[in-house]
Design a protein that fits this description.
Layout (H helix, E strand, L loop, with lengths): L1 H5 L6 H33 L5 H54 L2 H6 L2 H43 L1 H48 L1 H6 L3 H26 L2 H25 L5 H43 L19 E8 L10 E8 L4 E6 L5 H6 L9 E6 L2 E2 L5 H6 L1 E4 L10 H5 L8 H10 L3 H5 L18 H13 L5 E5 L7 H14 L4 E5 L11 E6 L2 E6 L1 H7 L1 H14 L1
Parallel strand pairs: 3-8, 3-9, 6-7, 7-8
Antiparallel strand pairs: 1-2, 1-4, 4-5, 9-10
Length: about 575
């Protein structure tokens, strides 16, 4: 896990290496300062020297101390700068690697993670990882180097007195092992509660208009407070173990200091130790105890961050279930589609299939309608064509070739799909349309918009095609949003167009004009229309009736009205509704 994360350091490796080098230099200089101070006391002040020599010695050693302190400060500042640059660069690379991996996710991969969870992983978890990296890059070097060198010098000054803090180390080690063992699972639960809070906020913000329309603010407040309270409780349960570490550390520190003052004072009275040595020894003891506190801080930080490490690496390790061949086909010959003994299950369990025994031949240039009740797997069927999901059994051919033999870019560039949920992005109308073809000219954009019956309402805006849509297209109606999405798909000039209930928000007259434009301008393009309204598919070359994941019937409008009970019932109910 750590190895996978460290591979993200990349171009910032030199900064990650320079930081501990300057930390080591800083510690080395800090270690020399107490020895110099001891010499000043024992030789320059208490030593057998003349006053003039004494003053000269103290002055010289004082200048050396100041120089070492300034150099130590400079090394500390540089190490801090290098560690910060390395940590920020590391976090940037981790986020980019996660984001790139998510971009490669298939729909089934995305189904495993909630949007809120992925947002938390890209923000909170990466920030925790970044903080742990920066702390380790400096303190993980500083603390051991200072601990080892200060301990060696303390033993050199007085081995008996140094035994005091040696007793404290096992006590701290046992305590922190117990703390970390209990804290880690609690922090995992805490981060899951964080996911739930983000999910709650995300849902509320996306649906804020519905909430206000139904005057449900109080209900949403109660749900938010419940999630927030659960987060607070889980955070408290996790951190109440961690906060025990600092009082324990302080107890051990003060106990060590009191013992050293007592035994050290006795050594001086008995002539076993010089006062300057005791002063420097106390300084080294403080360094040692400070180093132990730093080690504890790293320990705690890693406990806090370990759950975040695991969540980040979980995204790294997610196996992409839809892959492409390195030498895959890069050209789709035509828009013909063939389903051969296709079975599909979202869970992979064919005991409960979502699609069962699908056999279907669609000629290039045909217009196919798909009708079926809610949950009949209409959207699932068409999502298999551009490999948004892969079939569980059987095969699908496009242009006479198995879809798995194409590169994903080649296949999906020839299959324009307007999903049930119409999505527009922040930016202008023109910028959104260029998603279909970034090199499209204004004439091509307008032609696609006329076919989608969108041109007239676009030019009615003061800024026309440069109208800012706002986040998610909040400035246009549902029907206008659908027509913009259709125009965007048409700009791809694909061999296959799939409209997944994409005209449900437009009136029947506009729907009829869109279909007429499709017949005129896309006569060579295979068009698949999923609809709830019979009027949207009645003039299709063939209509497929789906029922519970199976093909119930295939035929023209007139044939199905005569022969298929499901289709006839839908048609008659809509006819009565129209009357």
């Amino acid at each position: 896990m750590i190895k996978k994360l460290l591979s993200c350091v990349g171009a910032y490796k030199k900064y990650a290496i320079l930081a501990p080098i300057f930390v080591a230099l800083e510690v080395f200089l800090e270690i020399l300062i107490p020895l110099t101070m001891s010499d000043i006391i024992d030789i320059g002040i208490n030593g057998p020297m003349e006053d003039s020599a004494r003053l000269a010695y103290v002055t010289k050693m004082g200048i050396i101390m100041v120089a070492m302190a300034l150099l130590s400060l400079l090394c500390g500042a540089l190490s801090g700068k290098f560690a910060s640059v390395a940590a920020v660069g590391f976090a940037k690379n981790v986020r980019k690697r996660m984001f790139d991996k998510i971009q490669d996710f298939s729909f089934s991969n995305i189904d495993k993670f909630s949007t809120a969870s992925l947002v938390t992983r890209l923000t909170t978890d990466v920030t925790n990882t970044q903080n742990a990296f920066m702390m380790c890059d400096r303190i993980l070097v500083r603390a051991p180097v200072m601990l080892i060198t200060a301990t060696a010098i303390a033993f050199f000054i007085n081995a008996k007195l140094a035994l005091v803090f040696i007793v404290a180390i096992p006590v701290l080690a046992i305590a922190f092992i117990v703390i970390s063992t209990k804290a880690f699972p609690r922090f995992q639960k805490f981060l899951k509660q964080f996911d739930k809070l983000n999910a709650r906020i995300q849902e509320m913000l996306i649906n804020i208009r519905v909430i206000k329309a139904f005057v449900r603010e109080d209900y949403e407040n109660e749900k938010f407070n419940e999630v927030a309270d659960n987060l607070r409780e889980s955070q408290f349960r996790a951190e109440k173990i961690i906060i025990c570490s600092m009082p324990l550390m302080q107890l051990v520190t003060y106990g060590c200091m009191l013992s050293i003052y007592w035994f050290g004072g006795n050594f001086i009275v008995n002539g076993e130790m010089l006062s300057g040595d005791l002063v420097s020894f106390i300084t080294y003891i403080m360094m040692i105890l400070t180093s132990l506190m730093m080690v504890c801080m790293i320990f705690i930080s890693l406990v806090l961050s370990r759950a975040s490490f695991a969540r980040v690496v979980e995204v790294f390790d997610e196996e992409i279930d839809i892959t492409e061949k390195a030498d895959g086909l890069t050209e789709v010959k035509d828009g013909s589609i063939s389903f051969r003994n296709v079975n599909f299950s979202y869970s992979g369990d064919l005991e409960n299939p979502n699609l069962e025994n699908i056999n279907l031949e669609i000629k290039s240039g045909e217009t196919i309608g798909i009708i079926g009740g809610t949950g009949s797997a209409k959207s699932t069927l068409v999502q298999l064509i551009p490999r948004l999901y892969d079939v569980t059994e059987g095969e699908i051919l496009v242009g006479g070739e198995n879809v798995k033999d194409y590169t994903l870019d080649a296949l999906r560039n020839e299959v324009a799909m307007v999903l049930q949920k119409n999505v527009l992005f922040s930016g202008t109308i023109r910028e959104n349309l260029l998603w279909g073809d970034i090199n499209a000219t204004q004439e091509e954009i307008e032609e696609a918009c006329r076919a989608a019956q969108a041109h007239d309402f676009i030019v009615s805006f003061p800024d026309g095609y440069e109208t800012d849509l706002g986040q998610g297209g909040v400035n246009v109606s549902g029907g206008q949003k659908q027509r913009l999405c259709i125009a965007r798909a048409l700009l791809k000039k694909p061999k296959i167009v799939i409209l997944d209930d994409s005209t449900s928000a437009v009136d029947t007259a506009t729907d009829s004009k869109i279909r007429a434009a499709f017949r005129e301008k896309l006569s060579d393009t295979t068009t698949i229309i999923i609809a709830q309204r019979i009027s949207s598919v009645c003039d299709a070359d063939r209509i497929i009736v789906l029922d519970d994941g199976k093909i119930n019937a295939v035929g023209t409008h007139d044939e199905l009205v005569e022969t298929n009970e499901i289709y006839r019932e839908v048609f008659e109910s809509q006819q009565k509704g129209a009357e």
